Amino acid sequence: MQTIEKNLLYFLDNKPYINITNACSNSCVFCIREQKQDVQGANLWLDKDEISTQEVISQIEQNKEKIETSSEIVFCGYGEPLIKLDEVIEVSKYLKQNFPNLKIRINTNGHANAIFKKNIVPELKGLVDYISISLNAQNEEMYNKISRPKIKNAYEEVKRFIRACVEEKIDTTASVVYNVPDYDIDVERCQVIAKSLGAKFRARDFIPNGY
Ligand code: SF4
Q1: Does ligand 1 have an atom closer than 6 angstroms to the CB of 29?
Q2: How far is the CA of 54 from the centre of ligand 1 (A)?
Q3: Nearest-atom index, ligand 1, CA of 77
Q4: Model pTM?
Q5: Does the beta carbon of 134 lie inside 6 Å of ligand 1?
Q6: In the Cβ-directed half-sphere of 92, how many Cα atoms lie within 13 Å?
Q7: Domain containing 141: what range?
Q8: 165 is a domain residue
Q9: Taking Cα atoms as reference points, which of 158, 170, 77 lies closest to residue 123?
């Protein structure tokens, strides 16, 4: 496993991921960062949170050949990528210009519109090909238990964000993690909610201690 200084970019099964921040407005009980210091050998703890777009681009350029053979790159690491909205947009523009065949995915907790107090989804249009949003639960009570959000009305905000992405015609998937010990996630109910919001649905089994 190649290790990269500051790990703004890492690879899982040869697929590139961008780790743009360690900040998050959730504290999910199943979060990988609660369990491990690394993801397949890449330490994703950043030594500072004020990273520049140029730092991310420079790590991408150092791995240009490997990225050129990939079909997709994902904003996903030890934090919520859209907290760094400006950097995500700038890096995505760079990727679209320099790797036109590469699809861009963002894995997000869906809090961005609440955090920025405006609809940021139109800013992603044309840059982000796929967005995966953590619905995480069938109702607010369970969401608050399993995701432990730091913002108000988080569950409603997540559902609104899912709908905003669908309305912008971004390929949108609502996701849940099930089989987390002590948390009774109603996967079928979550699927119905995702469908009612117009999104695709993905449920993934909880994997203790890692990917
Ligand atoms: S939203 Fe993602 S990064 Fe944030 S705590 Fe949950 S799993 Fe971890």
Answers
A1: no
A2: 25
A3: 3
A4: 0.93
A5: yes
A6: 22
A7: 5-205
A8: yes
A9: 170
